[in-house]
Design goal:
Mean pLDDT: 95
Number of strands: 9
InterPro entries: 2-oxoA_DH_lipoyl-BS, Biotin_lipoyl, GCV_H, GCV_H/Fam206, GCV_H_sub, Single_hybrid_motif
Strand content: 25-35%
Family: Belongs to the GcvH family.
Distance between the termini: 13 Å
Pfam family, one: GCV_H
Subunit structure: The glycine cleavage system is composed of four proteins: P, T, L and H.
Cofactor: (R)-lipoate
Structural class: alpha+beta
Length: 129
């Protein structure tokens, strides 16, 4: 069973969101998602300054098995990207909820967080897979 931290919110498309407490939110993919993808070989991240809408594909994770779109779990402006992944995409495999984060977003509408799942809800969606 994958690790599913209870303090995070989740999209059914396997992204996690952590509230940084300053109007920004860190986004990554769940441990379950990286296990499905396998060893990461490349991560294409959005550009800082990009405006994204909730549900819009804004990044790509490429593994030895497949390429998978990463979707913005909430709408807003990309304010930071994890540049370390350019040289070390495997960090997503090694630390999906820590150093393997993908990007930070300044939310344009924090009420969109209510559309995301809590850890239990997310666990239920992956149990159905």
């Amino acid at each position: 069973m994958s690790n599913i931290p209870s303090e995070l919110k989740y999209a059914s498309s396997h992204e996690w969101v952590r509230n940084e407490g300053d109007g920004t939110f860190t986004v990554g993919i769940s441990e379950h998602a990286q296990e499905l993808l396998g060893d990461m070989v490349f991560v294409e991240l959005p550009e800082v300054g990009d405006e994204v809408d909730a549900g819009e594909d804004c990044a790509v994770a490429e593994s030895v098995k497949a390429a998978s779109d990463i979707y913005a779990p909430i709408s807003g402006e990309i304010v930071a990207i994890n540049e370390d992944l350019e040289d070390a995409p495997e960090t997503v495999n090694n630390d999906a909820y820590g150093d393997g984060w993908l990007f930070r977003i300044k939310a344009s509408d924090e009420s969109e967080l209510e559309n995301l799942l809590d850890a239990e809800g997310y666990a239920n969606t992956i149990d159905e897979d």
